[in-house]
Design brief:
Layout lengths: L7 H15 L2 E6 L4 E4 L16 H8 L3 E3 L22 E9 L2 E10 L2 H40 L26 H10 L6 E4 L6 H10 L8 E5 L5 H9 E2 L12 E2 L1 H4 L4 E5 L9 H10 L1 E2 L8 E2 L3 E6 L3 H7 L4 H7 L2 E4 L10 H15 L6 E2 L1 H9 L5 H15 L4 E2 L6 H15 L3 H18 L7 H8 L3 H10 L5
Parallel strand pairs: 6-13, 6-14, 7-10, 10-13, 15-16
Antiparallel strand pairs: 1-2, 1-5, 3-4, 4-5, 8-9, 11-12
Helix pairs in contact: 11-13, 16-17
Length: about 475
């Protein structure tokens, strides 16, 4: 049994979606070179092996992506393929699928017509991050299945409740686009003991990143204990964090209770919304971080702990320090390795990826089968600012899947608040003149390119892509009030 044989339906779904998005045929091979999915011409070849000496076989061997735009050229990687003379492919792009550094398959996109070849030549470099993300999603699915199987086979009689399902960096949507930089930094510190402070708005996935840092570090077989400091009343937070001895206060257990730091011994503690810890408790937290010891409420003994601390907040801690509502020494103790998660409005290229991911999840969960979003709806959703970030987007997709009557989800299935905003937007457009509409569109295009991680604020590259001079680009940016 190959890795892909466990997720054939999942893979075929992604092959179909890639084909529709790119307008090209798609084939996916497993580690043995067998076609496990395909569209168009390749749908009839599912279950058959790719020819020996073929381009995709070479990618399986090398684990490196590749592109060919002239199959019969003397130095082409296809020269050893025994079916070279019968081949009708005019252009091919292949991307490997890895699972923990091992190559377990290949995704291929193919053009058969001169128009498709020209399209591939023009867009190939832009499509590489897309294929990288698809590869990561497949790896994510395989790792999920491994985790479930491992959980079923290794259940211990006294397994700590705090041990959670592993999360890997490859599972984080946007790891190869909007989140690339922060993931690269997180990988470097996964094996460290240093404190990490995750910054970002609510709903950006801070806890998921914290779990990935824990799962890919040396403490991954030890507890991961999370506590939301904003969700627990101030009177209870101290005993939740540090525990208490029996009889410490009215209503306490006779035998006492360990706190979250004790439960996380040898593992990781995640202090979510650390900016909401009351000023009165901050000195005790500081002492725990500095001394690596904890003292229960009402206790006299000092307990040594070995805990990796990951904290998170959406608050402006620097301003809180100035205002005196957050201790400066605690701030510096927490802010050793700061990692900032961008909101969705600053990484719009990830929104279609999240839409596809949640569409597949809730389509399966709610037994709605394979679903698609109307192309204009995807455009609208990608343009929305999502003040609630990923959490809000996920809720919107779950709502739409519930409301869907058929396989295609259109604007009528939008949640009411988004539908209302969409109608307001249409009314505003209706009252604007052509000149204003064109100016608004030009500004939105410039903002999109300037925010794109593919260009990284490279003005010359953006001007080249838009087919205007660099001076014209700067003039338009100044006109629209965009940062020059």
């Amino acid at each position: 049994m190959t890795e892909f044989s466990r997720i054939e339906e999942f893979i075929q779904s992604y092959a179909d979606n890639i084909s529709k998005v790119l307008g090209l045929d798609v084939t996916i091979l497993d580690e043995q070179g067998i076609r496990v999915s395909g569209t168009g011409y390749y749908s009839d070849l599912i279950g058959l092996p790719a020819p020996e000496g073929s381009f995709f076989r070479m990618i399986l061997q090398t684990g490196q992506p590749g592109m060919i735009f002239d199959m019969k050229k003397n130095d082409s990687q296809c020269m050893n393929c025994k079916f070279l003379q019968q081949c009708r492919e005019l252009a091919t792009i292949g991307f490997p699928v890895h699972k923990r550094e091992k190559t377990v398959g290949v995704i291929g996109i193919i053009g058969f017509s001169p128009e498709q070849k020209e399209k591939m030549l023009h867009h190939s470099e832009k499509w590489m991050p897309f294929l990288q993300h698809t590869s990561s999603l497949i790896e994510h699915k395989l790792l999920e299945l491994d985790a479930e199987r491992e959980k079923g086979c290794n259940i211990q009689e006294e397994m700590p409740q705090a041990v959670v399902k592993p999360v890997y960096f490859a599972q984080l949507i946007g790891a190869d686009t909007g989140l690339r930089d922060v993931i690269a930094k997180a990988k470097k510190v996964a094996g460290s003991i240093s404190t990490v402070l995750l910054r970002g708005e609510s709903g950006t996935g801070k806890e998921l990143l914290a779990k990935a840092i824990h799962s890919e570090g040396p403490r991954n077989r030890q507890p991961f204990v999370a506590i939301n400091c904003a969700a627990i009343p101030e009177t209870l937070l101290e005993s939740e964090l540090f525990g208490y001895e029996g009889g410490a206060f009215t209503g306490s257990r006779r035998e006492g209770k360990p706190g979250k730091f004790e439960l996380a011994h040898k593992g990781t503690i995640f202090l979510d919304e650390v900016g909401d810890i009351p000023l009165s408790l901050q000195p005790k937290l500081l002492r725990v971080l500095q001394e690596k010891t904890v003292e229960r409420v009402g206790g006299v003994k000092t307990l040594e702990i070995d805990v990796r601390v990951i904290a998170a907040t959406h608050k402006d801690l620097e301003n809180m320090v100035k205002e005196g509502t957050f201790r400066e020494d605690l701030y510096y103790r927490l802010n050793v390795i700061p990692l900032r998660l961008k909101p969705l409005r600053e990484r719009r290229e990830d929104i279609p990826l999240y839409l596809q991911h949640f569409l597949h999840r809730y389509g399966t969960l709610l037994q709605k089968g394979r679903l698609e979003l109307d192309a204009s709806l995807v455009h609208r959703l990608a343009a929305y600012d999502w003040p609630g970030n990923i959490r809000q987007l996920e809720n919107a997709v779950e709502y739409m899947v519930n409301m869907a009557d058929g396989s295609l989800i259109d604007h009528e299935s939008l949640p009411e608040h988004l539908l209302a905003e969409e109608e307001t937007g249409r009314t505003d457009e209706a009252g604007a003149g052509l000149e204003q509409l064109l100016a608004d569109y030009e500004r939105s295009v410039l903002k999109k390119y300037l925010a794109s991680s593919a260009y990284r604020q490279d003005k010359a590259a953006i001007a080249s892509e838009l087919q205007i001079s660099l001076s014209t680009l700067y003039r338009k940016m100044e006109k629209h009030g965009l940062e020059v």
